[in-house]
Amino acid sequence: MKSARxxxxxxxxVSLVACGGGGSSSSAPPTGGGGGAGxxxxxxxxxxxxxxxxxxxxxxxxxxxxxxxxLAPANPASFxxxxxxxxxxxxxxxxxxxDRGFTFATSIAEENALINSGSSAGFGIRLFYDxxxxxxxxxEAYEGASGFGAGLDRGSxxxxxGTSSADLQTVSSLFANGGVQAVVNAxxxxxxxxxxxxxxxxxxxxxxxxxxxxTDFPLDPVSDRYGAVVLNDGGKRVGYINLxxxxxxxxxxxxxxxxxxxxxxxxxxxxxxxRYNGGGLVxxxxxxxxxxxxxxxxxxxxxxxLRPSKAAENETRLFRPEPNAIAPTKVAVITTGSSAxxxxxVTNSLIxxxxxxxxxxxxxxxxxxxxxxxxxxxxxxxxxxAVAFQTVNANNQGEYYTGLASVVPNTCRAGDDISRSFGxxxxxxxxxxxDFLGGRACTPITAGxxxxxxxxxxxxxxxxxxxDLPERQPLQPDRPxxxxxxxxxxx
Length: 491
Prior knowledge:
Blueprint lengths: L12 E3 L34 H15 L17 H8 L1 H5 L8 E3 L1 H10 L1 E4 L2 E6 L4 E7 L4 H4 L7 E6 L6 E2 H17 L7 E7 L5 E7 L1 E4 L9 E6 L2 E7 L8 H14 L4 E5 L8 H9 L9 E6 L9 E4 L11 E6 L6 H13 L3 E5 L7 E8 L4 E11 L17 E4 L14 H10 L21 H6 L7 E3 L7 H5 L5
Parallel strand pairs: 1-18, 12-13, 13-16, 16-17, 17-20
Antiparallel strand pairs: 2-19, 3-10, 4-5, 4-21, 5-6, 6-7, 6-8, 8-9, 11-12, 14-15, 14-19, 18-19
Helix pairs in contact: 1-2, 7-8, 8-9
């Protein structure tokens, strides 16, 4: 554990090779990635039976779950999947808002491929829908993907979907007849070669209809267009960094390049845009901290805390030297309800060092101060992600289950204006961040989060400017794949 500080989703690597008997609720899995008796090979049907996998999941929770007193008894025979069994066992923690779907079963191969390859298959767009208006918009687009090549970008509204121009169905009719999943189904599977015809409206009003084929595309964590920009605010240089995700290992390399750009231009004030960043690798979050830790080497960045019976696995992470590190004097972090996990770790860990010289801008964050360990049953391609630890900052603060607005010293409420690009100083949240950095007044984020409100706007203007953020939700399938779990709304 001491050296395995890899991810909020990947802190632990625990294996149990299932050969001829599988996991058992009476024997917890061995730690350290070792295999069980048998050394691998082809599992028997019994080894990967539903009951064997449920028993493995049960043993993981019994040994590692962060909240052992919040586990409910459950009879595996009463459930038809590993996930439904896990849901029943962690129901008390979920009721207390401490495990909101954080414990789940997934594929080892899928998840490892995402982390190591940094790519996925699809149109390369992230979609959200307005829950009241039932309209679907692109919130961001990946530059190397087919969607961006066809003209889809931030602010595009998808209005109709079909397999050809002859069978286009309007998004409104899909919502009316089948809800969110009907829209998801119409977009097709996340496999390269899938083709759909999309009709979409651009922010300026132009209507486009294109046939677009899903391809493999890179999940570039720092965009080449707007990922790292130095803004001019009345003659003062402000560094703007937009990190899409922490889940791609190469994000650390890209962050080093971005902060090197800031260091070369003498930047000491930052806007860190994490508005859709759901988290990922703790190692990337640690590197980001190191890049803001010039002069702090050896001081505490964060602490990882496990359940009392696993206290020997607790870890303190200190700032480490980074050649491109800067010493920020003032920081504004842009978040929404989609900002979670590693995004919140970075923000929370800055509080002891910046105090009132930092602000949360936009809307309240998700509220996930806990992380999952990865516990593997390799022969069955089963990985159980179980909440196993909490992260706290140098002041031992980490109780932000209701979001970071409750702990960050300053907050500034702002909309998420998808009619403007990331990096644009006129975009609502970036403008509010610049106001904070410039000492100008702002309106605090309310306890319930949310954006600003304004009258006299059309429905489309309201949605595009993000004036009712709680009504925006990522468009998410009932059964998201590994990439969609880490990047909600990805298609």
